[in-house]
UniProtKB/TrEMBL annotation:
Annotated localization: Cytoplasm, Perinuclear region
Family from the record: Belongs to the TRAPP small subunits family. Sedlin subfamily.
GO terms classed as biological process: endoplasmic reticulum to Golgi vesicle-mediated transport
Coiled-coil annotated spans: none
Cellular component, GO annotation: perinuclear region of cytoplasm
Domain of life: Eukaryota
Protein name, as recorded: Trafficking protein particle complex subunit 2-like protein
Alphabetical list of CDD domains matching this protein: TRAPPC2L
Chief location bin: cytoplasm
Organism: Pyrocoelia pectoralis
SUPFAM superfamilies for the chain: SNARE-like
Xref: Pfam families: Sedlin_N (PF04628)
Alphabetical UniProt keywords: ER-Golgi transport, Transport
Amino acid sequence: MAVCAAIIGKDNSPKYFTCINPDEELGFQYKVLSSLDVVEEKLNNGTKSGSDSRELYLGLLYSLERHKIYGYVTNTKIKFIIVIDSTNTSLRDNEVRSMFRKLHSIYADNVCNPFYIPDEPINSKSFDKSVKNIMSGA
């Protein structure tokens, strides 16, 4: 399903990043960080319209030849980015939303851990395993 997942802090600093293929990690980092411009644009357009009850799921940020990049932003401005292979045409929008909800849930569980230091990168092995399960569709 997904080939890359990232969690970006409210100050646009990476908190977590993983890829299915570690050899392509640098290229995915560029794609994820460049998608933050689209996220900021969508967030700014939402606040200008005066509606504070915005949707957390931002949808498709942009589509490349081989990948589609989707975004999600929490109320605390934590950004989740998922990169999906374009050849996967059977993936529906509801399934992507579900992936983000699961990712948000395990992120919240990780942040609630008393040993987690706020605004630090996430280095938990169990968190990494849970994210990879979500990415693979398990």
